[in-house]
Design a protein that fits this description.
Distance between the termini: 89 Å
Number of helices: 10
Helix content: 25-40%
Amino acid sequence: AISVHGDSLTILQSPEFVSFQKGDWAISGEKIPDLVALTMGFSVQEDLSWPGLQAGPLFQRPRANVLVVVRGVDSLALPQSVASYPLENPVPFTLDSVAETIHSLFAEDTPVVLQLAPSEERLYMLGKANAVFEDLPVTLQQIRARLSQDGSVLASLPLNSLSRNAEADLLFLSEVQVLHDITALLQRHRHLAKDHSPDLYSLELSGLEELSRLYGQDSPQYRDATAILASVLQKFGEDVYGLYGNSAVVEVVTVKTFEAPLTRKSRSILESQQISNPGSPYNLAYKYNFQYAVIFNIVLWLMIALALAVIVVAYNLWNMDPGYDSIIYRMTNQKIRMD
C-alpha cells in the first residue's frame, strides 16, 4: 500500500516484486499517476526519473491498485510502512490515464475500474465493477441511509466526540462506511482477484477537510476523526492486500490542501464503452493507444522489406538470360535441338 501525505509518500504495503527503496527522494504530486502506472507494469509517456521505485519482473505484476486521496490532513499515523518519501507540488491529479490504459489492454477481460468521490457524488465504473458494486451506496443520501442499517460502522467505531446528528460528522462517517462496504463486496466476489486483468480503484475522501473547516484542527472531533480514519485505512489496506493474494498496491494520499482546485467533469457509467472509441458527432480521432508505436514500426519495416524484395526480384528478372536461367526457354537452345 502506498500512502501519500501532504508532504510525504509512505509505502504501507507492497508485493515483494514491487520494490521500493528507502530514501529521501522527493516526488511531485503530478507524478503519482505515472507511479501507479509503473507499479502495474504499464509504460508512461515520460520516464519517471525517481529512484524510489526499482524495476520489477517483466511477467509479474500486481493484480490491483487502490488509491485513496484524503484531503484536509497533513499526515496520518500509519505505523506499518515500508518506506517514506517527501512529496513536492501537491497538485490535483486523477487516474484517468491509467484507467484508459487498462481498458485498452484488457477490454476483453472486463477489468474492474472504480472511481468514487462520495462528497461530490462522483462515480465512474467500468467492466465488472458495474455488477460487483451496483449495490454500493453512492449519493450522500444513500450512504447516510446505509449508516442507519444493520452492520453499519456506527456500531463498531468509537465515535467519542463525533456526533451522529451533525452534517460534517455524518459526511466523515459516510466515507468510512464506503470503505467498509467496498471491502465487504470484494470479500463476496473473491473471483475478481483470480482473473488475469488488473483492477483499479480510486477513492477521494474529504470528510476530514470539512471537520477541519467547521471545528478546527485542534478540536477533539478532528483529532478523533483522524485517529479513526488512520485505523480504518490501515485495516482497509490489509484487507484488500489479503483479498488479492498479497498482490495489490494500496495508496493513501493525504493532502492538506491542493495547490489548485480540481475541476473534473464526472462521467456516467453508460459512457464506459466510449473510452477507446469516443463516437462523438464531431468526428474526433480515436484516443492514443500505447501500442501505436509498436504497430507503426511493424507495418513500416514490413513495407520496406516487401518493397526491397520486389525491387530485387524485378532487377533479376530484367537481367535474366532466358537461355541459361529459365527452363522454359532452355529448349530453344540450338545445341539441345541438335541433340
